[in-house]
Each structure stands twice: as C-alpha cells, then as structure tokens.
C-alpha cells in the first residue's frame, strides 16, 4: 500500500487514462444492466406480479410461445386444485389485442383473462376491482399510453367494447404491451372471435390458455404428477417468462453483450498491468534487493490494481446512474436496479483484478541481482 | 589509497566477535551459465570486512565484482563456500530466509542511487522500513538521516528533481536507514564528476566509521581509493589484495 498509493499519485495521468477506460466500460455495463432489467420488466412484469408458482399449459406446446399457442380445457383446473401442495388453481387466459379509445387513441393491450373471484384478480391503486362483465383493470403504464379511468376501448375488427374500471398497483406488462385484466368470460369471447351480442360457442366457454397454480406456502408441487393427472405440461413461473414474446432472444443477447464486456474489462486491465509490470521490472529488482518479499511486491501491485479498478468502476457506475436517471421514463425500456448494478460493478472489479493478477504475477520472477551492475 | 598497511584478502580468521558482526566470505565460488558455456564469476574468494571498515574492490568489467556483491547480500547462492553477515549464514537455500536476512542486516547502494521515481527523498528512506513485518519495522529517523547526509532541505524532492550526487546521497541514506551491519555499494561514482565522486566516497567512509558498518564498495574509480581502508583487486573471479 505504501508504494502503491504513491505510484498512483505520481503517475496519475497514466492511471487516469486507464481508469477512464474502465469507467467507460462500467458506464456501458450500467446502461446494459438498466436495459436488461427494463426489458425484463417490460416483457414479463405482468407475470412476475402474479401470485403464481407455475402454469400448466397444453401438452407438447411449443415452450417459447406457450402463452399464444396453448389451449387447455377448463376441467384441468379442478384436477390441479386437487393436487397435494396446491393452495389454489385458477383458469388463466392470455391474448394480445389492438384497441382504440373513443378519442381515437390506439392502445395495444395484453389481455389477462381471470375469474374476478379467483386469487389472480389484481388489487387496484385506483378505481374498482374486476367484477363487471365489461370492466377491465389496466396497468398504470397504459395510462401513460393514453388511456384514462372510465375510458371505453373498442377491440379492432371484433368491436367488443371494454371499460377501464381500475388501475393495478404497479407496472404490469407482457411482451412489451400493457396488461389489461379482463373477466374470463369476456376474454373467452374475445379469444374465440365472438362478436358482441352473439352467443359464446359451447367449446369456447371451456377453453383457457393455462391453469395458474399457486403452491402452499413453503411447499413444492409435484408438477409431473399434476401434469399426468390433468393432461397438461407445466412450466414454473420463471420458466414461463421464456414463453413471453421475444423474452429469451432479448435477454440472451444482452447477457452475451454483458459477458463480452466482462471479458473486455479483464483483458484491458490485464493488458495495462502487463505493460506496467514490464516497465516496473527494474524497480521490482531494487525492491527485492532491499528486502521486499515476493508477497509484499504482489500485495502492493494488486492493491494498486484494486484501488484503480474500484475507483474507476465507482465513477463509471455514478455516471451510468446519472445517465440512467435521465433515460428512465423516456419510453425506452430502462430500469435501474441496485442489486443488478452492484453485482455488475463487483463483477467488473473482480474480473479486472483477475486480469491484473495474471499480469503482475510475472514480477515474481524478477531477479533482484539485476539491480546490480549497469543493468538499470 | 589508504596509508594503512596493505591487507590480505584471505588470511584474517573470522573468529573474533567484531568480524562476526561484519562480512565474512570463505572459499566462495560461483559459476554462471549452462553446461555448454560457463563463466567462473567467483573463484575461491575469501574476504573479511570488519564493522567500521570501508573495503574497495576494483577490477575490469566482467571480473565478478557484481557477483561478489550479489553473493555477499544473499541475492545469489554460491556453488561453494560460506558467507556470513553479522554472524548470519547468507547461503541458506530458502530465498525467503535470505530475503529476511538481507532486510535486517544488509544495505545496498546502487549505481545512480536506483531510487524509485514515485517516491520523495524522505519516502525513499521510509520504504525499507515498510518492507518487513509490522513488528520488525524499526530503524533510524528518515528525516534526521537525510539531514546527516546533507539532504534535509530536499526531503520532498523526487529523484528527477535531484542531481546525480544528491540521488546517491539519498541512496546511501536509504541503505543506512535500517541500521544494517553490512553496506554493499555498487559503483557509487559511476555517473558523477570528480568532485561529487570524492564527496560521496568521503560520506561513505564517514558513515561506515560513525555507524560501525562494514562497507564493501565496488568501483572503477581509482581516484577515490584514498578514502578506503582496504583495497582488493578482482580479476577473472579471483580476489586479491591490491598492491
């Protein structure tokens, strides 16, 4: 530490340039983290907020599009309700629709069809809960998109009219579309393409997208056994995120970019400290000749790397948070999550330290005898 | 050259207490290179330097002078022979032990000082005191020692802000700060003019006597030998008292 700090101060321009590169990587990491969390929230917050532990979809359904392709018979709900460890099972319907308000505002909605008296019926921050036949409870983000309490929206082509009666407590979106909770009967009519005033076909009245299952607190449900009994295929709530449109592709792409950034961070730190270690060889020889142990020299070098990386990452995260605060709410799916950002920052420091460690380890091979003679 | 009688390189037995506090090398040999090509860097070298004595080693380049310092300071292990500093065996196999012995008993003065660019003159002296375990961090007061070598007013200067002679003064003070038993000095006047060279070697002689440190100085500079108590000549790895 004695020498590390003094060298940081003495060669501050050199270290500042290096720190600037790490800080820029940290800024990029915060932005990517914000985009990741924002995209996840935009893609599946509607699912995340459901009090559900698993969904039972139709057998052999394509997993990455299960919410749009699955059709399950209503009778599966009772089968699931009877399974050991299941606290609640309720029908769940899902479909995406284009709507237009009476003012002409076009709003896309992800309809979540639920029974108003089931455990899936959402709490509201304003207005009233689900109950009336044509009443819908929408995500607060739908208000940002142009909806208002009391508005009536008309579903394109079908002509079904739904009235906004309540607003959920937090952002509920699915596949980047605002969620609207709708009574199951209304959802079945919309899903089957039944026009207003026309009787709901018998078959449509028994079809749902999936059975939403909630396990008893602290217990797990034997999903394969339930699937065998109900003729379904279950996904846990987290697995079901992958069935949200575009979710897997988006998160995989961002994770790949983050992975590359971690690798770049380690390489940049490694390359810088490799050059630094080579330049310091004569000094290290003097230090060793003066009686510095290998451990002392390594500790000093790694402390230097740690101070530089931690300071640069902290500055980068600070800039990233400031930029993120400007972006949040601008329409870009961006959300700052301190746990994610802290983990990303720590990852940058640790991987940078690994890169620096791999570089400075070479100073252990410096022969102190080279400090003698005209070697310097 | 000193007015004292010319000493011998190998005849003084290292069996009295004062010798044990200094440097004693007996029948030391060292080879460099590999099986195909070897160089006899040190050839059956005997050397005794008592506390307070300034011994000079002269000789042509490649004669083995730096190897002598390296072996004396525990930077290299000899193939044969014994080396003791303050009674401690400097040829033990453990590099860690030799490093610790060097830290406690040996001070090095390098060509041009070999100061660390990031450190002020005062910090150059504080550095050796930081190298050991916390419990062993004792030594002289760096600022007082800087004053002793005439550098009190330049304690906050870094090496690039000092002249060659000033750098060498700081280097000498740095070597003395841990209160070593032996000072190993490598070409201290190599980059200095004649006047500065005399000042530096006078300083070394004064400090050696004042602090009872055994000093071995390797040099090409015959002008400064007058300040030395003993002078040895090294040729092809063999050490002999100078005529």
UniProtKB/TrEMBL annotation, chain A:
InterPro entries: ABC-4/HrtB_transporter, ABC3_permease_C. Pfam families: FtsX. Residues 260-368 form the ABC3 transporter permease C-terminal domain. The chain crosses the membrane at residues 15-40, 259-278, 306-329, 341-361. The keyword Flavoprotein does not apply. GO terms for cellular component: plasma membrane. It is found in: Cell membrane. This is ABC transporter permease. It comes from Micromonospora arida. The lineage of its organism: Bacteria, Bacillati, Actinomycetota, Actinomycetes, Micromonosporales.
TrEMBL record, chain B:
Residues 25-243 form the ABC transporter domain. InterPro entries: AAA+_ATPase, ABC_transporter-like_ATP-bd, ABC_transporter-like_CS, ABC_transpr_LolD-like, MacB-like_ATP-bd, P-loop_NTPase. It comes from the Bacteria. One of its GO terms (molecular function) is ATP hydrolysis activity. GO terms for cellular component: plasma membrane. The keyword Transcription regulation does not apply. Pfam families: ABC_tran. Keywords: ATP-binding, Nucleotide-binding, Transport. This is ABC transporter ATP-binding protein.
């Amino acid at each position: 530490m004695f020498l590390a700090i003094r060298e940081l101060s003495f060669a501050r321009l050199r270290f500042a340039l290096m720190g600037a590169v790490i800080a820029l990587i940290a800024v990029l990491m915060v932005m990517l983290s914000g985009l990741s969390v924002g995209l996840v929230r935009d893609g599946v917050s509607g699912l995340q907020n459901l009090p559900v532990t698993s969904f039972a979809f139709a057998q052999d359904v394509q997993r990455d599009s299960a919410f749009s392709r699955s059709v399950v018979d209503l009778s599966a709900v009772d089968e699931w309700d009877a399974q050991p460890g299941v606290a609640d099972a309720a029908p769940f319907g899902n479909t995406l629709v284009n709507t237009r308000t009476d003012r002409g505002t076009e709003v896309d909605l992800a309809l979540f069809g639920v029974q108003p008296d089931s455990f899936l019926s959402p709490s509201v921050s304003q207005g009233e809960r689900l109950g009336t036949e044509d009443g819908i409870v929408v995500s607060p983000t739908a208000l940002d998109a142009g909806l208002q309490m009391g508005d009536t929206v008309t579903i394109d082509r079908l002509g079904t009219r739904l009235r906004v009666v309540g607003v959920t407590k937090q952002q509920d979106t699915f596949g980047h579309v605002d969620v609207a909770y709708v009574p199951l009967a209304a959802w079945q009519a919309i899903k089957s393409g039944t026009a207003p005033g026309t009787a709901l076909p018998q078959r449509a009245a028994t079809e749902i997208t999936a059975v939403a299952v909630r396990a008893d607190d602290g217990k797990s449900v034997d999903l394969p056994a339930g699937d065998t009994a109900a003729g379904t295929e279950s996904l846990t709530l987290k697995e079901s995120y992958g069935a949200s449109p575009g979710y897997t592709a988006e998160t995989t792409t961002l994770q790949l970019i983050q992975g590359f950034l971690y690798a770049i961070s380690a390489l940049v730190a490694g390359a810088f400290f490799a050059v630094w270690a080579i330049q310091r060889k004569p000094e290290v020889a003097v230090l060793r000749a003066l009686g510095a142990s290998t451990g002392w020299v390594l500790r000093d070098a790694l402390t230097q790397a740690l101070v530089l990386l931690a300071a640069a990452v902290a500055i980068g995260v600070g800039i990233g948070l400031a930029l993120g605060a400007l972006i949040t709410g601008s329409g870009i799916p961006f959300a700052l999550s301190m746990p994610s950002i802290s983990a990303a920052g720590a990852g940058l420091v640790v991987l940078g330290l690994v890169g620096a460690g791999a570089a400075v380890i070479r100073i252990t091979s410096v022969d102190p005898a080279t400090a003698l003679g005209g070697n310097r | 050259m000193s007015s004292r009688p010319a000493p011998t390189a190998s005849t003084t037995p290292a069996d009295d207490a004062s010798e044990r506090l200094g440097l004693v090398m007996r029948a030391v040999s060292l080879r460099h290179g590999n099986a195909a090509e070897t160089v006899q860097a040190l050839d059956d070298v005997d050397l005794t330097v008592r506390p307070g004595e300034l011994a000079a080693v002269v000789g042509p380049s490649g004669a083995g002078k730096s190897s002598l310092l390296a072996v004396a300071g525990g930077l290299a292990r000899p193939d044969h022979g014994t080396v003791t500093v303050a009674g401690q065996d400097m040829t033990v196999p453990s590099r860690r032990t030799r490093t610790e012995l060097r830290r406690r008993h040996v001070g090095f003065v390098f060509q041009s000082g070999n100061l660390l660019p990031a450190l002020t003159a005062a910090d150059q002296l504080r550095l050796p005191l930081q190298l050991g375990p916390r419990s062993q961090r004792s030594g002289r007061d760096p600022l007082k020692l800087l004053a002793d070598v005439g550098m009190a007013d330049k304690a906050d200067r870094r090496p690039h802000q000092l002249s060659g002679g000033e750098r060498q003064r700081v280097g000498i003070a740095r070597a003395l700060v841990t209160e070593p038993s032996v000072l190993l000095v490598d070409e201290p006047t190599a980059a200095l003019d004649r006047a500065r060279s005399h000042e530096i070697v006078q300083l070394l002689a004064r400090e050696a006597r004042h602090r009872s440190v055994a000093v071995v100085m390797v040099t090409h500079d015959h002008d400064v030998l007058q300040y030395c108590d003993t002078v040895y000549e090294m040729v092809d790895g063999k050490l002999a008292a100078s005529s």
